[in-house]
Amino acid sequence: MSSPIHLQIKSLYKDFSPKEQAIADYILENPSKVSHGSISDLASELGIADSTFFQFTKTLGFNGFKDFKMALLKQENDLTAITVHENVQKNDSELVMAQKVFDSNMTTLTDTRKLLKEEDLKKAVTMISESRRLYFFGVGGSEIVATDAYHKFLRSPIPVGHSTDYHIQLMEASLLTEEDCALFISHSGKSKETIHIAEAVKKAGTKVIVVTSQANSPLAKLGDVVFISISEEIEFRSEALASRIAQLSIIDSLYVILMFRNRNNAQDTISKVRKVILKQKE
């Protein structure tokens, strides 16, 4: 498997059954023990049948336990280096609290970067480049990321659109065609409003890019290209909030690649935008 196993487990975790989550937790907490143990011993310690552990490895995309174990052994150095960031404690100083937030953000970015695939980046940017229009969709906290993306891509040579109002988003979606591209942002990938819009544009033949933290979510299944953002949760900040920095970085990457691919037109567009903005600053 090209993706680190612990990140693959994290991206699927919320779709696991309680029993599968228990197996996942055990693997994440005891990677070396799992990579050197027998399926019978591991299953016995977890209080489950051998077949249950075997089936879990199949769920992850492996041919079985032996295939999973070989991959785990290859990645053991990375896995044993994993540390779960200690939650912010009430006795921590302000500096320590801030440092823990930064540590969490850095882990989020590092983990997400490991899941990036060149073919996905190429495909997504090609879809955007060949589109008549690019629209950004997101609700709630994801709408903030969509607005940032819209603000950024306004500088690109591709016409873009976005609205902060859900009903207007629905109206915009109804007008998209197979010549357009839609980028959806949703941490859970389960937002009913976002899925409703995605289903509508998909039916119209619109190309769909999805940025989410849940690889098996309903929204992810609608994407022509899917980017997974991995995040660490700390006290007073949910996983959804933590994932924003990774989502923003994914969109930043698409923007930079697009601009370099369309360098001449991009420079012309940026020049026009800068001239207008500079006049307001004089």
From TrEMBL:
Residues 3-79 form the HTH rpiR-type domain. InterPro entries: Homeodomain-like_sf, HTH_RpiR, RpiR-like, RpiR-like_SIS, SIS_dom, SIS_dom_sf, WH-like_DNA-bd_sf. One of its GO terms (molecular function) is DNA-binding transcription factor activity. Residues 124-264 form the SIS domain. Keywords: DNA-binding, Isomerase, Transcription, Transcription regulation. One of its GO terms (biological process) is carbohydrate derivative metabolic process. PANTHER family: GLUCOKINASE, HTH-TYPE TRANSCRIPTIONAL REGULATOR HEXR-RELATED. This is Phosphosugar isomerase transcriptional regulator.
